């Protein structure tokens, strides 16, 4: 059985709309085990939890936003494929504007974003991709949180699809699930 991981974005969870849509779609493929994990809020703890959760490298990783960044870090370490949806590039620069305390409404948890987390993110960021062909990057130009052009530049050489309009949640995500599954299951 092939394993595919789904990594949610910042302040999201395995119960987000994209995660639930992905889980429902992959249930149609009994030869695939999709795992959607709830990750800790600090970057180092999130990576440690991912490494602890894996018995073997997954066949592929799907990551959205900050989950796309973590998917990139993990894919570079493990040499597996990754499909990224509006991925965060250099998230230490974006999240620096969100230092403070927050409450997660779904998980009912309080968490803090601290300056030290920005250093962790910067340290985790791969300077360049070893094999961009292992990536499918889906971007919407209307993303109000992240500049899609940074991802176009960073993932140069990957399969990149730029969709006009949309937003950070990736409007119409469910229509891209067959393409995502095909990419993830490619051998």
UniProtKB/TrEMBL annotation:
<dbReference type="InterPro" id="IPR029058">
    <property type="entry name" value="AB_hydrolase_fold"/>
</dbReference>
<dbReference type="Pfam" id="PF05728">
    <property type="entry name" value="UPF0227"/>
</dbReference>
<dbReference type="InterPro" id="IPR008886">
    <property type="entry name" value="UPF0227/Esterase_YqiA"/>
</dbReference>
<protein>
    <submittedName>
        <fullName>Esterase</fullName>
    </submittedName>
</protein>
């Amino acid at each position: 059985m092939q394993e595919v991981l789904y990594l949610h974005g910042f302040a999201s969870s395995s119960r987000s709309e994209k995660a639930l849509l992905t889980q429902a779609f992959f249930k149609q493929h009994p030869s695939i085990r999709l795992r959607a994990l709830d990750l800790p809020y600090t970057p180092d703890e999130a990576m440690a939890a991912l490494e602890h959760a894996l018995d073997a490298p997954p066949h592929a990783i799907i990551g959205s936003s900050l989950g796309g960044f973590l998917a990139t870090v993990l894919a570079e370490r493990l040499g597996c494929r990754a499909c990224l949806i509006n991925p965060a590039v250099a998230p230490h620069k974006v999240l620096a504007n969100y230092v403070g305390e927050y409450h997660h409404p779904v998980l009912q948890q309080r968490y803090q974003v601290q300056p030290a987390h920005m250093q962790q993110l910067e340290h985790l960021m791969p300077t360049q991709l070893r094999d961009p062909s292992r990536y499918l990057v889906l971007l919407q130009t209307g993303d109000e949180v992240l500049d899609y052009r940074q991802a176009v530049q960073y993932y140069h050489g990957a399969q990149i699809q730029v969709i006009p309009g949309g937003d950070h949640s990736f409007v119409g995500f469910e229509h891209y699930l067959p393409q995502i599954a095909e990419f993830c299951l490619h051998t």
